[in-house]
């Protein structure tokens, strides 16, 4: 594909070279990655997708910990279990590992949810960029516009031919105009036309404007960080003053501060303690054995339920496949009408 594109460019360049003296070829390019990073809608949606991916990763880690616990429990209790129970435990662990691998593939595989949702996320922005490039190319008479972030190799690209900021400006303006009245839109279009004329007359003006905006954002972030740090320090000082005041008042009145008071104020006499101890005699081994038996029973039931569900799903899939095959054969054997 790259070779085809390069051959096409060379061919077109050769054709245009014959008319280079009479008519210059105007070429521009965009950087799709840069545009996506600076479009607010994409940034917000990307942040939400990253939060989803982080949640999936946490689920995977939790599942790994659960499987590790099952393995450790089997290793510890292997000597106390029968061969049948050991086989059930190993089968359950294997089932859990298979389930984990399936989940990882479903979320992060080549055709997983992450890749699919990224494509869905990028598509509307790509459509907006394509429309904006078409408008800019027609208005400013560009002959070619390439994408720097694509598979096409660009060995050199002069910044003055980069129209990425213009594309971002067109998309941002379109979003703002959707919230304006007809009169406001007309006024804004006149204002935008003057701004574009100024930028065309002085290309470095746009770079300076962007640099000023970046500095402004950096200053605002610095102020916000300082304000947050000051509020945190103020809260810590207030808490410390309250603690010192409480200790001072406690010293005057002879009371114990709240943080030094015992948590459990219930008292039990030795006689009552002895009565409690003597009233019920519990065998720890019996309790542990009962808990282990219940745990094994619960795991066995859960494993049987999962196996049953898998078999039902397989049967349903098999039936659907057979029905589809049967319908295809019927369609194939259906007599053709002239």
From TrEMBL:
**GO MF terms held by the record:** unfolded protein binding
Coiled coil located at which positions? 39-106
Extract the InterPro entries matched here: Chaperone_Skp, Skp_dom_sf
Q: Which UniProt keywords apply?
A: Coiled coil, Signal
Q: Specify whether Metal-binding is a keyword of the entry.
A: no
- Signal peptide range in chain numbering: none
A GO BP entry is:
protein stabilization
Entry annotated with the keyword Signal: yes
Pfam families linked: OmpH
> Among the entry's GO cellular component annotations, what is one?
cytosol
Q: Which SUPFAM superfamilies match?
A: OmpH-like
- Region Disordered, as annotated, extends over 245-338
Where is this chain compositionally biased, Basic and acidic residues type?
A: 258-267, 285-338
Family of this protein: Belongs to the Skp family.
Q: What is this protein called?
A: Chaperone protein Skp
Give the species: Flavobacterium sangjuense
Provide the organism lineage as a comma list.
Bacteria, Pseudomonadati, Bacteroidota, Flavobacteriia, Flavobacteriales
């Amino acid at each position: 594909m790259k070779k085809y594109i390069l051959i096409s460019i060379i061919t077109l360049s050769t054709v245009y070279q014959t008319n280079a003296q009479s008519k210059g070829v105007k070429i521009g390019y965009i950087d799709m990655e840069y545009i996506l990073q600076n479009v607010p809608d994409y940034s917000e949606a990307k942040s939400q997708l990253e939060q989803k991916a982080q949640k999936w990763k946490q689920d995977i880690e939790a599942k790994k910990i659960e499987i590790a616990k099952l393995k450790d429990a089997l290793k510890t209790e292997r000597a106390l279990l029968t061969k049948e129970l050991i086989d059930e435990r190993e089968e359950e662990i294997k089932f859990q590992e298979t389930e984990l691998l399936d989940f990882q593939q479903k979320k992060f595989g080549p055709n997983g949810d992450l890749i699919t949702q990224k494509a869905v996320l990028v598509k509307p922005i790509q459509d907006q960029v394509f429309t904006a490039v078409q408008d800019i190319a027609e208005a400013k008479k560009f002959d070619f516009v390439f994408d720097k972030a694509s598979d096409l190799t660009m060995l050199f690209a002069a910044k003055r031919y980069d129209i990425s900021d213009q594309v971002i400006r067109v998309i941002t303006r379109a979003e703002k105009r959707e919230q304006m009245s007809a009169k406001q839109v007309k006024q804004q279009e006149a204002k935008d036309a003057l701004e574009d004329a100024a930028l065309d007359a002085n290309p470095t003006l746009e770079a300076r404007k962007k640099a000023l905006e970046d500095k402004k954002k950096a200053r605002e972030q610095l102020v916000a960080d300082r304000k947050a740090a000051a509020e945190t320090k103020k809260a810590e000082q207030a808490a410390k003053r309250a603690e010192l005041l409480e200790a001072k008042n406690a010293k005057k009145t002879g009371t114990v501060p709240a943080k030094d008071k015992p948590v459990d104020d219930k008292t039990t006499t030795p006689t009552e303690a002895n009565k409690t101890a003597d009233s019920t005699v519990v065998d720890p081994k019996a309790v542990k054995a009962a808990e282990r038996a219940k745990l094994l029973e619960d795991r066995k039931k859960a494993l049987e339920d999962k196996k049953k569900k898998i078999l039902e799903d397989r049967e349903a899939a098999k039936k659907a496949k057979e029905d589809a095959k049967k319908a295809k054969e019927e369609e194939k054997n259906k007599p053709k009408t002239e």
